[in-house]
Amino acid sequence: MSRFDSAEPYYGDDSLHVGNGTGLPILHIGSSHHYLPNKTFSLTNILHAPQIKRNLLFVQRFCHDNNVYFEFHSNFFSVKDECTHNTLLTGPSEDVLYSITLPTALPVPKVAFSTSRASAATWHQRLGHPHHQIFNTMLFKYCLPISNKTLDLHCNSCLIGKSSKLHLLSSEYKSSHILDLILCDIWGPAPVTSFDGHNYFLLCVDHFSKFMWLFPLKRKSAVFEVFKRFVTMDERQFTTQIKCVQTDWGGEFRNLSQFFSSIGIIHRLSCPHTSEQNGIVERRHRHVVETGLTLMAQSNIPQHFWHFASETATYLINRMPSRANSAISPFELVFKHKPDFFFLRVFGCQCYPHLWPYNPHKMDFRSTPCIFLGYSTSHHGYRCFDPITERMYIARHVRFSETIFPFKTTPEPIPSPSIPNPYVSTYPTSALIIPNAAPPPATIETTTHHHHHHLSP
Q1: How far is residue 262's CA from residue 255's CA, in Å, rounded to a whole number?
Q2: In which domain of life is the source organism classified (predicted)?
Q3: How far apart are CA 41 and CA 43, in angstroms?
Q4: Residue-by-residue DSSP string for 383-451
Q5: Separation of alpha carbons 135 and 87, rounded Å
Q6: pLDDT by residue (tens digit) across 170-223?
Q7: What region, left, alpha or beta, does residue 327 occupy, with left being phi > 0 and alpha being psi -120 to 50 degrees?
């Protein structure tokens, strides 16, 4: 007991079992320290069992508490420092046991080291505020002398100088019906103004089905009127109404907040400069743009036709199975039937629309080579662009050469700025050229609003 620095009586029921199975009673539990000139050994949880004949050392605990390791040889052993590998103690082998003698010298007064050991916080500052994992590795690897091993992880300088975005967990919100939540965002401005003068597009994504509506815009300020028509369209097409709309707080969406309040729609906002809270529509933006660029690349479509490529990409993505919908396409969830894949054609290929009804006399050719630029948003038909006259035809009677891409072989036409744009709108106005003069209702669908997307194919 005289060798203990501190000890407490033990009142438990445990005992120390020796080789013959006998349990020796434990009377005290204590600790002691043994000092070398450059090392202090600590013995913790020492069990005081007076009936034991020899003092036994728990090697693993001794190594763990003192950062040392043992080397055992046939007639001696040594204790070495883990960092410097210097030999600290040696002992002989006697009677098939290794005998260790710990130093009993008094400790050197601590005041002698008060100026040589810096705190963990001081070393953290000396090393330029490294990450705490790197800092702990350096303390162990290089044996840096520190007065305490506890580093306060809330370093004010690190929090100011290394501030970064947090890893946000995925939202657990789940919508149960179509139009429960609509997510919206603006893409643009495009580096090239589209063929019909658009610089932006508004993308609206239904949270439940992931169905997308794309609205080309010439200016951001047009969002208010476009979205009002979108709300009206949804109320007519579905038996439910929009309940929530999520956007950022961009200027184009601020005017909508009062409009939403007046009709009972909850306007949810993402935090400033936190686009990841609007991650669904942001990823859809990327999908639409990348698919559109891919369609343009396959047929060498000029960049000012990006509007048609983006609309075609949206049309196709809506008909693809989605992992978020258990491999069911958004189109099926919205309209409750499978899409018609036999209607699809290769974007940018050569096509021949039936133009006989527009011929001024009977000897004119019945068609002319055109370029397929997607699907009409107001008709069950195809967009056919004549690169010679720069006219857009909407036709259902079209023959395709899906392996021929005219823009890969013909130079891009350069329109003269003095000539008015002869582009004919794809919507049913007096200027629209539709090859079928009197199409049956089953093949042609119409709408009364410009840039208004129809919900059915």
Answers
A1: 12
A2: Eukaryota
A3: 7
A4: EEEETTTTEEEEESSEEEETT--GGGTSPPP---TTSPP-PPPSSSSTT---S-SS--TTT----SSTT
A5: 27
A6: 777 788 899 999 999 999 899 999 998 999 999 999 999 999 999 999 999 999
A7: left
